[in-house]
């Protein structure tokens, strides 16, 4: 094989990661059909949510001081859902499970998550901004915000939270 052929193949190989990254960006930009169809016309439209449009509210299933903003979907229906959770500094989500797989992305702040039926600060794993954790249904997890933190949760509905210790469930207080 001559040098010119080797050099041109090197260029193709080194371009592969860039092409893969570009394709991934293209796929990520495609709208999810089941969440973007207009119910009246069945026309597919993209959903774009700007940070200034987020509407934060209390949730009866999460501890006091924790706020939620629904991005898309209906958490009570069998459809893709996305929402953000804002936790105050020191905010804790007690050990719990979900009946669906859950993907958690840290948007801002300092968040840590752990696994197990008892909240254990020593078991927390720090998740810097941009980190993603994927928890399969039934996995026992807990979370802690070291400073004010926003996480994003993506899942397939219907979504609910089942606390391991009933005393931790804000719905029972």
Biggest beta sheet summary: 6 strands, antiparallel
**What is the helix fraction of residues, given as a range?**
10-25%
Overall pLDDT: 83
> Which CATH-level-2 architecture of the largest domain?
Sandwich
Topology:
Elements (H helix, E strand, L loop, with lengths): L2 H27 L3 H4 L20 E2 L8 E6 L7 E8 L4 E6 L4 E7 L2 E5 L9 E3 L4 E4 L5 E5 L3 E8 L5 E2 L10
Antiparallel strand pairs: 1-2, 2-3, 3-10, 4-9, 4-11, 5-8, 5-10, 6-7, 6-9
Please characterize this protein's 3D structure.
The structure is a single chain. This protein has 173 residues and is an alpha+beta fold. It folds into 2 domains: 3-30; 51-172, Sandwich (Jelly Rolls), CATH 2.60.120.10. It is built from 2 helices and 11 strands. The protein has helices spanning 3-29, 33-36; strands at residues 57-58, 67-72, 80-87, 92-97, 102-108, 111-115, 125-127, 132-135, 141-145, 149-156, 162-163. The strands form 2 sheets. It has a 6-stranded antiparallel beta sheet with strand order 1-2-3-10-5-8, with no helix packed on it. Strands 7-6-9-4-11 form a 5-stranded antiparallel beta sheet, with no helix packed on it. The N and C termini lie far apart (75 Å).
